[in-house]
Amino acid sequence: MKPLILVGGGGHCKSVIEAAESAGYSILGVLDLPEEVGKEILSTKVIGTDDDIPAYVDKAEFVITVGFIKNPVVRIKLYNRIKEAGGKLATVIASTAHVSKYATLGEGTVVLHHAFVNADAKVGCNVILNNFVNIEHDAVIGDQCHISTGAMVNGECKVGERCFIGSQSVLANCITVGDDIIVGAGSVVRKSISEKGIYAGNPAILKIKAK
Q: How far apart, in whole angstroms, are the C-alpha atoms of residue 137 and residue 153?
């Protein structure tokens, strides 16, 4: 395994450092805001900014470690910047996570501790599968999503691109969640939803339409 460069500081960066180290990766450093250069995040030094991405293309693989709750724009921008520079994104699976040998994960995806990805599930690129997430058999998770802590995506569900599924939420079997949808923490999505916006409750209903 090549060493990693983590792009973006903050709380999610700490989670990825711990998961990556548990999986046996070495980490060269973090790229963050100019005022953070020289500081440390856990045991990892901030060694530069986003402008330094091209300097590490041949030395390391990248993981985007900016979180996503309300909006994935920053994560997408960094993903595109790494790709345009010719960089490769690593797929990191924490030591306590289980990913079926029959499942597929896209580049840049991070599977954090105690997450479970079952047989024939398909997870896109630059996705966060947070601690204790369950992605059941035949489920599909689109690119640039964040499935948050303890969420359960049941069998044959389809989650579109750029979605956030909040902590402890449950998606009933065989439903579809459209692109650019946020599901609030603790919600139960019992039927397919397609209109962009924020959903919450049990059953989950549209609370705020996207502008």
A: 9
